[in-house]
Structure of Dipeptidase:
Amino acid sequence: MTNFPVFDGHNDLVLRLLRGDVTAQGVAEGLDSGHIDKPRAVKGGFGGGFFAIFVPSPGNKAVRYEEMVKPEYDIPLPDPVPENEALDWTTRGFDALDDLAAAGAVTLCRTADDIAAALPKPEMAAVAHIEGAEAVDRDFARLHEWHARGLRSLGPVWSRPTVWGDGVPFRFPSSPDTGPGLTGAGKALVRECNALKIMIDLSHLNEKGMDDVAAISDAPLVATHSNAHAISPHARNLTDRQLHMIRESDGMVGINFASAFLRPDGRMESDFGLDIMLRHFDHLVETLGEDRVGLGSDFDGALVPDPIRDIAGLPNLLAALKDHGVDDDLMARVTHRNWLRVLRKTWSN
């Protein structure tokens, strides 16, 4: 493995398994599609990350990503997902992670020490993350059950309404201040996650929702896959005010590789160079500090820049960072040490 193994804030590989696009054995042996498999992980120095368990919206009411190539767009939030449907997808998501581990594709990790031990090896460290908590019940029995199965990170919402609060829409240009904050149930969910030492992911929350988390949570504020609103004024990105809140909490942000959240014009098109990613990197380092910036690719869930393409292309990003003046110490922090720092603080504080 590389001297700078990448621990990544977010990927959607599990959804590909749940949809039947790939098998766990295929991920272990190599695929001819998508962004992630074990051979490409070894080639690209991808040491692992948060593997999202996500419930897709019904097909006829899913987000219309083709709208995101227009100069301006405002895609309505999808309808809420019924709890029973969410429960089925989420249960199968945990089973899919077990299948990946059984096939030798990933190593399941529950602690920062587990991750640190796996990173130097030719294997993918996988930490269970729930993106959108529609399957969590009001008395949190399932949350406790899934924590026992390895759940260590949870995003209360994806970009749609839930009983916990509303996600931010896919809107450009737009402020992330797009609706009300967390509901009473959502605030209780944050407190329960704090009690279990489950990291709260702020990505996809609107501005008022993030403010509510900041007022309640005793853990560092973390956005696993978000970018700088000052560079790309998309509703999904973080304003400087939000970044300062994250800095004050000693949290961090994982840079999202999704083209629409990187490009200043907000287009979901991949034909651009890494200079735009470097602009986000510079702004985040300047605003947050060098200890609070990492990577949060959104591999297998987004259209990424052509120079990267998939996890085998991560060395191209690291080379661009090096040419940009990033020394070995900062490179190690950005690729994995900052994540380990925040996770140790979150999971054991």
